[in-house]
Each structure stands twice: as C-alpha cells, then as structure tokens.
Amino acid sequence: MEAIVLGDGSKKYQEIIQILKDAGAKLDIPDFNGTSPLQHAKQRGFKEIVKILTSKI
Predict the structure, then answer these.
(1) Which of 6, 16, 31, 41 is deepest in the core (most CB within 10 A)?
(2) CA pair distance 17, 21, nearest whole angstrom
(3) Contact status, residue 3 vs residue 13, Cβ threshold 8 Å
(4) CA distances from residue 21 to 10, 31, 33 in whole angstroms, order as listed
(5) Are 7 and 48 in contact (CB under 8 A)?
(6) pTM for the structure as a whole
(7) Percentage of residues of the chain with pLDDT beyond 70
(8) Share of the chain above pLDDT 90, in %
(9) Can you give the chain as a three-state secondary structure string?
(10) Model confidence at 56, in pLDDT bands (50, 70, 90)?
(11) How far apart are CA 3 and CA 12, in angstroms?
(12) Which residues, in sequence order, are CB contacts of 28 under 8 Å at separation 6+?
C-alpha cells in the first residue's frame, strides 16, 4: 500500500511492488477507507503497477 500511496509509480516503485508480489505479500489489503492498493494505483494512473497487481504470474 505505501509503495503505491507514497510512491510516484516510477520504475523503482514498480520494482518494489514486483518484489513484494514475488515474495508472497498480500497485495489486496485495503486501507482504513476500504480502498485497495489496486484501486489506488488505478486512481493515480500507475498503469505498470496495475499490470503487476493484476497479473496472475
């Protein structure tokens, strides 16, 4: 969540999200408002992060 909300969607943050995903981190835990990391990424226009979050592999 923090890598998306506090990040800028750049390559560095894309790599962080990918590392977390590869390590088995739960990437669907919503914030206190019920907004998921995927929703935050979409709202911010982070297309590459959306791809990472939605890819099955």
Answers:
(1) 41
(2) 6
(3) yes
(4) 17, 18, 23
(5) no
(6) 0.91
(7) 98
(8) 96
(9) CHHHHCCCCCHHHHHHHHHHHHCCCCCCCCCCCCCCHHHHHHHHCCHHHHHHHHCCC
(10) confident
(11) 10
(12) 36, 37, 38
Q: Answer whether 16's CB lies under 8 Å from 3's CB.
A: yes
Tokens encoding 18: 């990918």
Query: How far apart (Å, rounded) are the C-alpha atoms in residues 43 and 23?
Result: 25
Instruction: Please report, to the nearest 10 degrees, the dihedral formed by the alpha carbons of residues 21, 37, 46, 17 taken in order.
Output: -20
- On whether the CB atoms of residues 23 and 14 are closer than 8 A, the answer is no
Residue 42: count of CB within 10 angstroms of its CB: 16
